[in-house]
UniProtKB/TrEMBL annotation, chains A, B:
<dbReference type="InterPro" id="IPR036707">
    <property type="entry name" value="MinE_sf"/>
</dbReference>
<keyword id="KW-0132">Cell division</keyword>
<dbReference type="GO" id="GO:0051301">
    <property type="term" value="P:cell division"/>
</dbReference>
<dbReference type="GO" id="GO:0032955">
    <property type="term" value="P:regulation of division septum assembly"/>
</dbReference>
<comment type="function">
    <text>Prevents the cell division inhibition by proteins MinC and MinD at internal division sites while permitting inhibition at polar sites. This ensures cell division at the proper site by restricting the formation of a division septum at the midpoint of the long axis of the cell.</text>
</comment>
<dbReference type="Pfam" id="PF03776">
    <property type="entry name" value="MinE"/>
</dbReference>
<keyword id="KW-0131">Cell cycle</keyword>
<comment type="similarity">
    <text>Belongs to the MinE family.</text>
</comment>
<protein>
    <recommendedName>
        <fullName>Cell division topological specificity factor</fullName>
    </recommendedName>
</protein>
<dbReference type="InterPro" id="IPR005527">
    <property type="entry name" value="MinE"/>
</dbReference>
<dbReference type="GO" id="GO:0042802">
    <property type="term" value="F:identical protein binding"/>
</dbReference>
């Protein structure tokens, strides 16, 4: 599966950090003649609200990007989650 | 931006269909010692609810995949949207 490989290749860069990471990507491909509002930017807070039902997300742990290229528009949310296990474990 | 290239390469395959397409990907990378519930499968209906606030999504227009590989888990929702322009245009 293509995206899994892409995500894993990204992961290697941050492997030493050993935190949990969550990435939400919404990609919209519009046909060239299509009209309609740009709803991806409006969606980001609502997507974060869904995530927050399951995990604690600090506001500064979220990195948001919006990219456009031709008829493709991509909203990307990168979230670093706090580690929830072994709270007494020493961190290096 | 890596993902945009990935998405655009996928797009070429379906270019002849000329529909609008929406893809939502949630990727979770867990550190190897992390515990916690598998919340990605539970999230899919809530993500669809967010999308439905902005666009009409038919139930059979959604393709859902959940992949796991090592400490990566990826939820992928692929949605084909109805074309919203030229409603009187004949469809072939």
């Amino acid at each position: 599966m293509g995206f899994l490989s892409y995500f894993r290749s990204q992961k290697k860069r941050s492997a030493s950090v050993a935190k949990e990471r969550l990435q939400i990507i919404v990609a919209r491909e519009r046909s060239q003649t299509a009209t309609g509002p740009d709803y991806l930017p409006m969606m980001k807070e609502e997507l974060l609200d869904v995530i927050r039902k399951y995990v604690q997300v600090e506001r500064d742990a979220v990195n948001i990007q919006l990219d456009r290229e031709g008829d493709c528009e991509v909203l990307e949310l990168n979230i670093t989650l706090p580690e929830q296990h072994n709270p007494h474990q020493a961190r290096e």
